[in-house]
Design goal:
Number of strands of chain A: 0
CATH class of the largest domain in chain A: Mainly Alpha
Oligomer: homotetramer
Largest interface: A-B, 47 and 47 residues
Distance between the termini of chain A: 40 Å
Largest sheet of chain A: none
Order of helices and strands of chain A: HHHHHHHHH
Radius of gyration of chain A: 20 Å
CATH superfamily of the largest domain in chain A: Tetracycline Repressor, domain 2
Helix content of chain A: 55-70%
CATH topology of the largest domain in chain A: Tetracycline Repressor, domain 2
Chain lengths: ~210, ~210, ~210, ~210
DNA sequence: AAGTAACCGAGACGGTACGTCCGGTCTTTGG
DNA sequence: CCAAAGACCGGACGTACCGTCTCGGTTACTT
């Protein structure tokens, strides 16, 4: 989110950010997000929990949302990405299951909903989110689909980006809006039905 | 949103809710949402704009989010729903375009993002949202797909609810998360690609 | 405080005040004064306790202070005035003890302090208080002193009104300001010392 | 009223109380007391007039009454205490005139009445008032009477504290309760009549 | 006996102030 | 110069009451 001080050769003593404070702040943010949720997270609360002055937070993060984004990213890598690669459909299903797992972690959906709300009022944050976070999540899925195309399972003219929109969109839609369950049955049917629309029509894709 | 007191024979009859204040509050909320957005909306601001005491708002709405939901719904019917019914694909496209139009209204996406964030902390509101708002939006799309199935354009065993998840999900995903454009090209390709996955394989769909 | 409807000969149908409500209001006021004190007394609280609409209170009393004054007076006659008349000094002491008893009743000092505070902002109430309440309390003391003068125990040119100011003033001063105890030793010494200043110098006073 | 944080060696060194804000708050309180009186004084009003956040007031004063007490004391020293010392009676009269002058200042009686009312509901404030304010006012009078006793004008066994109760009590009684005038004639007769009760009977005290 | 007008309970209304919380900035002191 | 501590101004929170204003329902007098 923010780089450590460059001890570059420009000779200036520059800033000496306390790594201890940095870690304490991010950790406190994660804990409070889990314990109380996004809405109840306050800078004062983070500062108190981290044993840090408020100014130290304001010095390094431009907004609460930026802090939460960093804490969120730092904590979301705990669920390991699947690496199966057996069939396109199996890969897609595994990736959907992984996405669901990430989003239903304690820190997952609730925080994401809060962030989504702040993106609408914070252009800079929105840019960073759409540049760093969104593509990172899409990439693995896109790669799986491209492998499917190379194997001939997926039509050459299929719009794979659009397919990721539909796959991920359906997951987020249930998570954030409809409240419908995010279970294995859902991901299984979602994967097969969307892949049907991408299939070359000759090679069967089913599971 | 909130019913008038039941004129049942149990309670004493007393002064009723002022419809004038009710309207003024909802209107003020809509105006302030357009002018300043969800984040900057305060109960005090609404009360001042509406020329109303704060208590009058707290008396009838349990939370800011509930008020916003009512204002949102009261103002979202301005875009008229399409009634085409020429072909399944055309219908789906028209409904997607309608959804996009509704969501890109001045009051649309920004407010929705805010609401979505509050749903995570307000169970009662979430229930109402998922009972009243979500199905209302899905229904027309579902009906269009069912007509397609009756005509034989769509497989009998296709999961239509899932298809709506994918269609609407893709739209909301772009609106709230990826920031990708919501244009006519998008809705066109989305409709045809998803419908391909639902097609019976014999009757061609799409244009 | 407020007269009942005069069924005068002016022919007007006039008002028909509910005596039941009147009593309920005064009683509720007294109870709440004892339970919570002057500061915590609210019109809404009285109305709720009395099972009465707020308007019924506002219709008959111009202010909270006026209501409290009525409730105070209605409840302060429970301590019976002494009628001794043995000696001037004994009479004065008895009357001081009576005053102290009245003021240390549960409803006494705390309410008086509150009223005193409101007199400064409510001219009409102040007038009524100084016309009805104050002289009623002074009268018995003044009569006792006048009897002393007639007997020759008190100088003919002594300022008896001033003496009452000093006697009562000392009591209220301890009650409201200094917090010093209002016990029998105090009243005894106060009576004899003040009476010394009034004595004719020939006839001994005091015990 | 409130001490600055102890610069003991236990606590961390940090930002101290702003003397600028302190003064602004006290001054604003005094002005508003004069302009509108005790009843109309609100914390919000003081904060607005002083250009200060409400929290800054709540941080340093536990109640409105405590703030008023400080403002009252800070402003009551404008009338200089007399230092005559000619005769006991003249001294007493001068001190009574001084007390009357202090209490009839614009900020005087109205504020005192309000404070008196709050003392009944605020034990801590009452203690401070009775420890700091009351004795300060009594002391000069007591000293004058003691000088009189040393000179032989006042009986050795006279209760001087009680005499101050009577002298001051009469003044406050007129101010707060009876509304009778506080003029020079009053103080003159009060002084001489009370002193008569204290006199040794041999040395004349009159003026 | 019906009409009617004031009174009643209930409580919604536009407001004001409460005391608290937090945002974002500023100041102090020490490392 | 950074960091902790936390005071500062500002502003919104949700609550409590204010005094006024409808509402039917009730009651006691008039007609």
């Amino acid at each position: 989110m923010r780089e450590l001080p460059d001890t570059g050769d420009d000779g200036a003593p520059t800033r000496r950010r306390s790594e201890r404070s940095h870690r304490a702040i991010v950790t406190a943010t994660q804990e409070l997000l889990v314990e109380r949720g996004y809405r109840a997270l306050t800078i004062e609360g983070v500062a108190a929990r981290a044993g840090v002055g408020k100014q130290t937070i304001y010095r390094w993060w431009p907004s609460r949302a930026a802090l939460v984004l960093e804490a969120y990213l730092a904590g979301s890598d705990e669920v390991v990405r699947p690496r199966t690669r057996t069939s396109t459909c199996a890969d897609v299903r595994a990736l959907l299951d992984w996405l669901v797992a990430v989003l239903t972690q304690p820190i997952g959906g609730r925080v994401l909903a809060g962030l989504v709300s702040d993106l609408k009022d914070d252009t800079e944050l929105a840019e960073r989110f759409q540049r760093d976070v969104v593509p990172a999540r899409r990439q693995a899925m896109l790669a799986a689909l491209e492998r499917g195309r190379e194997r001939g399972e997926i039509r050459a003219d299929a719009d794979l980006e659009l397919a990721v929109d539909a796959l991920h969109g359906a997951v987020f839609y249930r998570l954030l809006l409809s409240g419908a369950p995010l279970d294995a049955a859902f991901t299984k049917r979602l994967a097969s039905q969307v892949l049907l629309g991408l299939s070359s029509g000759f090679v069967p894709i089913g599971d």
